[in-house]
Amino acid sequence: EIRTIVRDLEQSAREILTQIQTVHQSDGIKCVQEICNGITPLFGNIQKGMQILAGKIPDSQYYRYSDQWRFLIQRLAFLAAFLTYLQTESVISMQDVATLIGVKVLREEGFHIDLEDYLMGLLQLASELSRLAVNAVTAGDYGRPMRIAKFVGELDSGFRLLNLKNDSLRKRFDGLKYDLKKVEEVVYDLTIRGLKPAE
Amino acid sequence: MADRKKRYRNDKSDHKQDRETKQDDVDESSPVIQMFRTFQKILDEKHDKHERIVKLSRDITIESKRAIFLLHRFKNVNDSEDIIQQTETKLLDLERSKFKDVAMELQGTDPYQFLRAYSPGLQEYIEALSFFVYLKDNTIIPLKDVQARLTFKTDCQTVNKDDSEGSTDETIQTIQVFVPPSEYILGLADLTGEMMRRAINSVGDGDLNRPFEICAVLQEVELAYSKLTHSNREVNRKLTVLRQSLRKVESACYTLKVRGSEIPKHMLVDVISKSNAYASADFLDECVVEDD
Questions:
Q1: Is the pTM of this model over 0.80?
Q2: Which residues are Mg(2+)-binding (chain A) (predicted)?
Q3: Average predicted confidence (pLDDT) for chain B
Q4: Which of A135, B214, B275, B276 has the CB geometry, 3.0–4.6 Å to B199, for a possible disulfide?
Q5: pLDDT of residue B168
Q6: Nearest to A80, CA basis, from A102, A48, A62
Q7: In the structure, what pLDDT confidence band is assigned to residue B61 with cuts at 50, 70 and 90?
Q8: Is there a contact between A190 and A145 (Cβ–Cβ < 8 Å)?
Q9: CB atoms A162 and B110 under 8 Å
Q10: Residue from A114, A161, A182 whose CB has the most chain B CBs within 10 Å, to mutate
Q11: In whole angstroms, what is the distance from residue B42 CA to residue A163 CA?
Q12: Distance of alpha carbon B195 from alpha carbon B135, whole angstroms
């Protein structure tokens, strides 16, 4: 039963993903605002779906079934973070992710998002942004990679404050330094060719 | 940017030095950093709690195994009263100390969140406890009795916030180590292994009836567990072991029945062990190879 609901939500998440990834295209990077506006209503479906899911889980059994929706929640956290980045170029807070997806933050409040899932979403965002940096240059936007470098650098500093266990989060975090390296290479390429835009 | 990379490589050296260097170089005023500092605290607390429960679970496993060794020396209710007494004490101590500590750790958390941390200890304990109850009362302990043994009352003093004098209220809270039915079932499956050992050992002790009793019990249990195979992967694993145990006991009963009168008592155990060795090797075969 839970699996059916999760599958529906994954479908909705896929729709958001395909739309939001159009920013990687050359014309996409110019109409970021429009893309964001198109996506925001889609999150409404997510919220409704989450309500249904939350209704199926009795109070003290969240962790009994949590493996069923872990991947989904991580994906949704990533999408929410990506959307917020495109709109405001800032790091989305856990509270905002929760509101956007339609869940709570603390276990006591009900069906909630785990801190680890939110962090996974942020790491997925870093990978996506390293890809965006490359495509931004191709599309002619030379300023964005600079800002992405600062953004991802901040994420990296933040993550390095954490003491992680050897779990999937740790493995994903290890990938973060390669994402950061990629973005810094883009910045380097632009700088030495004098393509860096004036501050 | 290059400095940050250098710092990362140095992080691998000394842990404490790590945290101090990080604090100096990091921009504390950044909201992102502040956010991550909170995350650090939350994650550390969760990991530490998990580790504490795992340590307790390991201690529980060791004590339970010792209890089981003790119980294997039990002959029958008349001769071995002190073994029963010792085991009772051991189990009670275990409950009052380690399990109570686990219950304290688990207070206020979702029952399933840390289950994997204490699951091994819990299953070993259920194995020991159910073996104890079986030897003492010749019954299988029901789940609610197991849960009752792992439920504790604590005196908890809470300060009355409304009262200006700051008086305290004494409330009795009930905390417990949650035993999900799945853990109970898995623990009981381990019990069958011990019963198999007891059946074989009985022959050495001279009690030639007990293997047949135990055989009957194991057959019932095997039928019951066969119905559960679709729910849980671990049940399947335990069921495989259970079937091996059952085969050993059945083959021992066969040997007793057919050749019990021919072979001198002190050799019976050897004969049974040898035929069991064959049985384990040809696990997939239907027929048991007899040793001569």
A1: no
A2: 128
A3: 79
A4: B214
A5: 52
A6: A102
A7: very high
A8: yes
A9: no
A10: A161
A11: 10
A12: 10
CB–CB contact B33 A158 (8 Å): yes
* Residue carrying the six token digits 């170029």: A89
Instruction: State pLDDT tens for residues A52-99.
Output: 888 888 877 888 888 888 999 999 999 999 999 988 888 888 888 888
Please write the tens of the pLDDT for every residue from B259-272. Answer: 777 777 777 777 77
Q: Which amino acid is at A132?
A: L
Tell me which of B8, B9, B30, B110 to substitute to probe the interface with A (most A C-beta atoms closer than 10 Å): B110
What is the distance in angstroms between the Cα of B57 and the nearest Cα belonging to chain A? 19
Radius of gyration of chain A (CA): 18
Do B204 and B273 contact (CB within 8 A), yes or no? no
pLDDT in tens, A90-139: 888 888 888 888 888 887 777 888 899 999 999 999 999 999 999 888 88
Number of Cβ within a 10 Å radius of residue A51: 12
In what helix (H) or strand (E) does residue B264 lie, and over which residues does it extend?
none
For tokens 């990379």, name the residue: B5
B200 contacts B253 by C-beta, under 8 angstroms: no
Residue A153 and residue B33: Cβ atoms within 8 Å? no
Residue B163 burial by Cβ neighbours in a 10 Å radius (0-12, 13-18, 19+): exposed
Q: Are A91 and A155 in contact (CB under 8 A)?
A: yes
Tokens found for residue B91: 């189990």
Residues in A touching B111 (Cβ below 8 Å): 60-61, 63
Distances, alpha carbon A197 to alpha carbons A88, A137, A141, B100, in Å: 20, 12, 9, 64
The predicted-structure confidence for A154-196, as pLDDT tens digits, reads as follows 999 999 989 888 888 999 999 999 999 999 999 999 999 887 7
Residues belonging to chain A with any Cβ–Cβ distance to chain B shorter than 8 Å: 60-64, 66, 91, 93, 107, 115-116, 119, 153-165, 177, 184
**Mutant choice from B20, B22, B28, B40 vs A, greatest count of A C-beta within 10 A:** B40
The whole-angstrom separation of Cα A34 and Cα B247 is 70
Residues 6+ apart with CB under 8 A from A119: A159, A162, A169, B39
Who among A63, A158, A159 is closest to B110 (CB)?
A: A63
Taking CB atoms and an 8 Å cutoff, what residues of chain A touch B115?
A: 63
CA nearest B37 in A: which residue? A161
Above pLDDT 90, what percent of chain B?
23
Plot region of A58 (φ>0 → left; ψ -120 to 50 → alpha; else → beta): beta
Of B280, B85, B91, nearest to B200 by C-alpha is: B280
A43 pLDDT tier (thresholds 50, 70, 90): confident
Tokens of A47: 């919220």
